[in-house]
Amino acid sequence: MRKPIILAIESSCDETSAAIIINGKIVNNIVATQSVHENYGGVVPELASRAHEKHIVPIIDEAIKNAGITLQMLDAVAFTQGPGLLGALLVGASFAKSLAFSLDIPLIGVNHMQAHILAHFLDVPHPAFPFLCLTVSGGHTQIVKVESATKMEVIGQTLDDAVGEAFDKSAKLMGLTYPGGPLIDRYAAEGNPERFIFSDASIPGFNFSFSGIKTAFMYFLKDNMGKNSNFIEENRADICASLQHSLVRMLLQKLKKASDHTKIREIAIAGGVSANKGLRNELSILAEKKKWNVYVPKLEYCTDNAAMIAMNAHFKYLEKDFCDLSVTPQPRMVI
Q1: Cβ neighbours of 290 (radius 10 Å)
Q2: Tens of pLDDT, residues 302-329
Q3: Residue 148 belongs to a domain with what CATH number?
Q4: How deeply is 178 buried, as exposed, middle or buried, from its count of CB atoms within 10 A (0-12, 13-18, 19+)?
């Protein structure tokens, strides 16, 4: 059997990315980041779509040439079907459908959130099935029970805002530039995480809620700035450390609860927020206490990228799980 060669395209938000995977091994992972959104404090959907249109051909051309192959050698084309921004998804989907049609090869639609989880299989060691994956990003916060590469169940999720949004919106309130989450992480390393206390909502089960802590943080800053206009500048490190500690505590409390309930000790984290050093450190401490086996992707595979789309596509190719040209993007696609 020929070793399958798959081109994968990621365009769900503000990164345009292409990757080549051959027989389950990533050859390259090319990413073009859109800096235009920094001027607006968040991703502007229309600008994201236009940037994808500008980047997609050069990015794919680079991936093909870097892999030392030709388009005619491809066995399938994969793309992010959802979730994500509709306009951004349309760019990747349209290109993938056109290319698959012109080459008469299979087309593979990939769930972006499943791909984040399967990013763990881009390297070794990787978790054994079944495992729990805490998937944390700007748009999602989920605990997923992963039975196999194709069988996953969301057992807990946010009821309102994602933890990544809580980080970025809180950073914006502090006057930090976008994206603010990594800046909070950086300042937190120099602060006292117990200086300020931010209470969290009591949500039953394995679900999360971050809207309350965002509101509490807003009033915390407003009250203290009313007393001292330099409050943020004088206490930035401690504020960031305390906020981050509270958000991480909320995540790990639910992950611990899910592990105790399912008796699963194979634990993974994925998504852009999994790059957060505070989360990684606290998870490491908890893992030692609970005797978990913990898996964290390389930093380059935490944020949106085509390598994770390619890995998911490889598993789907083996199952012959293809889609036809009538497939459409699904901005609210779920696992």
Answers
A1: 14
A2: 999 999 999 999 999 999 999 999 999 9
A3: 3.30.420.40
A4: middle
Question: What's the gap between Cα 246 and its chain centre?
Answer: 20
Query: Is 94 inside a domain boundary?
Result: yes
> Do 56 and 105 lie in a common domain?
yes
Return all residues near 50 (Cβ < 8 A) that are at least 6 apart: none
Question: Are the C-beta atoms of 168 and 42 separated by less than 8 Å?
Answer: yes
pLDDT per position as a tens digit, 156-193:
999 999 999 999 999 999 999 888 999 999 999 999 99
Taking the whole predicted model, whether its pTM rises above 0.90 is answered as yes
Beta strands in the chain (DSSP E): 5-10, 15-22, 25-33, 76-82, 107-111, 131-136, 141-146, 152-157, 266-270, 293-295
* Residue 25 shares a structural domain with residue 151: no
The percent of the chain in helix, strand and coil, each rounded to the nearest 5, is 50, 20, 35
Nearest to 45 by CA among 114, 139, 135: 139
